[in-house]
Fold this protein.
Amino acid sequence: MERIDVLVTYDVDTTTKEGRARLRKVAQVCKNYGQRVQFSVFELSVSQAQLESFEAKLLDIINPNQDSLRIYVLYGGRDKSLRHHGIDRYTDFDDPLVV
């Protein structure tokens, strides 16, 4: 199964109780599919079917008149697309993990 590296960013309007609830739901869906690398930024490594399911779930949550959702497909993968400086909170789960 081919994996697709994806960068997801979102900005949810939290000025209302409903907005704060949407923010929590968006963050939870993102956590279920990938890992947080900054407050509203997640990296995913998913199949095409998982990406479509992920996107559909988020589109059911956000309010397109108040919120913003950006999904970037990293063609060539994370390694070829990323220039990182400073603290890196990313864990490569395909590499051996030492506990």
About this structure: The mean pLDDT is 88.
